[in-house]
Specification:
By secondary structure, the protein is mainly α. It contains four helices and no strands. The termini are far apart.
Amino acid sequence: MNYDFLGFIAGIFTTFSMAPQLWRVLRLRSARELSLVFILCMAFGNLLWLIYGILDGQAPIILWNSVSITLACGLIIAKLKYNA
């Protein structure tokens, strides 16, 4: 039995958990409360998961980690821009 649907559903929740934080930072133009180390570690972890998903051919892992990396990059840029 194929359980990819669980991966797609889980990915929605874990990936978009960063979206409200990015939206808040962009709206308030303040990222002082964010940890750059945390964001960088998350982005690197997502990159490793993406590589794993590509090598193993797992569509949910490829999709959601690609989106997570995009959101993490947005947070990194916002942190560097709005840190003060």
